């Protein structure tokens, strides 16, 4: 079932042997914009929690908020994805994604409501902390449902839509970073100001989530998306004619074939996020300091990372590495960031200054964005169309495993 070649083009018919004039156009690039927004949407809850870290750290001074959030979110998301893969053949991605968006919405609404009626800006109300951790876990479940489904859907489409989703994830980070810069400049850095800032992050996230729900339920009505959905249906029906209805044994066989086809791509993605999460955001928000920039320093570093992550994820339409071995090797080459950042934290004084740390952080974002996008684009094209969704979900599993391992490894910076 595995296709050994990877398409070179970026047209709507990359993987299809049919005339171009039969393929509906993506009028006004609406489908691209929708998938870009969907990519931004499923990461914006995570970015909202991390960007509001000043407020959460103020409320709960005895907790390592960044790292706890990361561990809970990633591990719960991982378990959620395992269940989705196990039962993907019995469930509908349309339903899974809508349920995930609903859970996101509940979680995002819960935080400002709890702040208004229970925490009220008081320090040390650890009942609120444990509820917040629970809400972060709920977002992890929702992330598994939405991210697995959206990336899986994009895997069935031409590569520009996968690029849109991946670039959208970076755009969500940029959006929330800009909000943080705005609130830092406008609101006083006292209890009231930090509280207003955090509530603004969550209100904007709620608006984006509502927009995502509308966009997702509109997307499948677009002619270009309907066209590729019909192609998938035809491929599924042809496979049923050849192999009969999908049994548990056949599903497992197909799943292992898909895993075998994408395992090296997935390994590259996994190592990308092990490296990134072991450093970012924990080290750049807690472990580096600047006498010049003071508490602006972590904000600038996070913004720099997010901007360069977006730049990296936007470069593939200009140049896409088509040699999988090169892309995977480069992903493993990012392990060099670990000793480099260690030197910035513990080495000679020059390496602890703002310029080396900022340059390294921006390079971390740039390489994270570019190589993630390359591998996410290439991998689903190595399997047949009817298995591309499964390939996309498997890739997200590798990504979340990388995030989970990286978030645990990040603790070693403070041991």
Shape: globular
SS element count, helices:
15
Q: What is the succession of H and E elements?
A: HHHHHHHHHHHHHHH
Poorly predicted runs: 1-20
Percent of residues in β-strands:
under 5%
CATH fold label: Growth Hormone, Chain: A
Major beta sheet summary: none
Distance between the termini: 47 Å
Task: Write down the domain tally.
Answer: 1
Instruction: Give me the CATH superfamily.
Output: MFS general substrate transporter like domains
CATH class: Mainly Alpha
Helix content: over 70%
From the coordinates shown, what is the CATH architecture?
Up-down Bundle
Tell me the structural class: mainly alpha
Mean pLDDT: 86
| Radius of gyration using CA atoms only | 21 Å
Number of strands: 0
GO molecular function, one term: transmembrane transporter activity
Subcellular location: Membrane
GO cellular component, one term: membrane
InterPro entries: Eqnu_transpt
Describe the structure.
This protein is mainly alpha-helical and 415 residues long. The chain has one domain (26-413): Up-down Bundle (Growth Hormone, Chain: A). It is 74% helix and 0% strand. The chain has 15 helices and no strands. It has helices spanning 30-51, 53-59, 65-87, 93-119, 126-155, 159-186, 191-219, 223-243, 248-279, 282-286, 297-314, 324-333, 337-346, 354-378, 388-409. Helix 13 packs antiparallel against helix 14. The radius of gyration is 21 Å and the shape is globular. The model is unreliable at 1-20 (pLDDT under 50).
């Amino acid at each position: 079932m595995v296709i050994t070649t990877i398409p070179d083009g970026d047209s709507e018919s990359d993987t299809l042997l049919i005339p171009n004039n039969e393929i509906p156009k993506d009028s006004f690039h609406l489908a691209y914009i929708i998938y870009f927004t969907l990519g931004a949407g499923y990461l914006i809850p995570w970015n909202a929690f991390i960007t509001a870290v000043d407020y959460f750290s103020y409320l709960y001074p005895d907790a390592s908020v960044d790292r706890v959030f990361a561990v809970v979110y990633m591990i719960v998301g991982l378990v959620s994805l395992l269940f989705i893969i196990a039962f993907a053949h019995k469930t509908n991605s349309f339903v899974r994604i809508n349920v995930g968006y609903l859970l996101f919405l509940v979680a995002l609404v819960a935080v400002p409501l709890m702040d208004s009626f229970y925490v009220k800006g008081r320090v040390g109300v650890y009942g609120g902390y444990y509820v917040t951790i629970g809400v972060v876990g709920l977002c992890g479940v929702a992330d598994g449902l939405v991210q697995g489904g959206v990336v899986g859907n994009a895997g069935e489409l031409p590569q520009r839509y996968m690029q849109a989703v991946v670039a959208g994830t970076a755009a969500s980070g940029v959006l929330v970073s800009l909000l943080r810069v705005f609130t830092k400049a406008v609101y006083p850095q006292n209890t009231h100001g930090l509280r207003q800032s955090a509530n603004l992050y969550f209100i904007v996230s709620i608006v984006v989530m509502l927009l995502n729900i509308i966009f997702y339920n509109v997307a499948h009505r677009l002619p270009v998306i309907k066209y590729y959905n019909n192609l998938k249906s035809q491929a599924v029906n042809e496979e049923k004619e050849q192999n009969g209805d999908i049994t548990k044994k056949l599903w497992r066989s197909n799943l292992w074939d898909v895993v075998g086809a994408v395992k090296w791509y997935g390994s590259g993605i996994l190592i990308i996020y092990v490296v990134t999460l072991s450093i970012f955001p924990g080290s750049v928000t807690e472990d580096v300091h600047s006498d010049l920039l003071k508490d602006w320093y972590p904000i600038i570093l996070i913004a720099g990372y997010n901007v360069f992550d977006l730049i990296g994820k936007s470069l593939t339409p200009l140049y896409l590495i088509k040699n999988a071995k090169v892309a995977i090797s480069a992903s493993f080459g990012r392990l060099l960031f670990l000793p480099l950042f260690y030197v910035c934290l513990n080495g000679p004084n020059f390496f602890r200054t703002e310029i080396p740390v900022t340059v390294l952080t921006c390079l971390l974002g740039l390489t994270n964005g570019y190589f993630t996008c390359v591998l996410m684009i290439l991998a689903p094209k190595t399997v047949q169309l009817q298995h591309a969704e499964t390939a996309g979900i498997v890739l997200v599993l590798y990504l979340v495993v990388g995030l989970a391992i990286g978030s645990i490894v990040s603790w070693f910076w403070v041991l």
